[in-house]
Description:
3 helices; mainly alpha; Trypsin Inhibitor V, Chain A; about 190 residues
Amino acid sequence: xxxxxxxxxxxxxxxxxxxxxxxxxxxxxxxxxxxxxxxxxxxxxxxxxxxxxxxxxxxxxxxxxxxxxxxxxxxxxxxxxxxxxxxxxxxxxxxxxxxxxxxxxxxxxxxxxxxxxxxxxxxxxxxxxxxxxxxxxxxxxxxxxxxxxxxxxxxxxxxxxxxxxxxxxxxxxxxxxxxxxxxxxx
Length: 186
């Protein structure tokens, strides 16, 4: 029995040695993975530092002209290509714009891009503004016409109701008159 109790410590030592060997093997495998992750992270951070953010060139609060947008892009190290709107782009939302106002960009504002990236700058023309105003005026005229029609229908309903009430009064009065006349003849 004394021989079997001596084997227990040996088994524990063997388990510990096996565990250390396994951990060492895992560490040997994990180191290249960790190094790769660190390299990727460092590279990504460096790339992010190099990227520039596309400035926001259009907003309701601070509308910019094409000239201002081009200057701003150049100052950020970006290139610009101007794209003017066509008459098909006319929309009520453009009725208050001014000629050559920037209305959109591609890529959009706040996106990170490489320095020297080409940014498409879409701007509005006076022709589109005029057409947008015309569309707005037509829509307003239609709204006013619909409102007027509703008001007219309401007045007609009121007049019809009033005629019905008046007819009912007249009939009731006739009935009372006939009853009074019948009572007085008796």
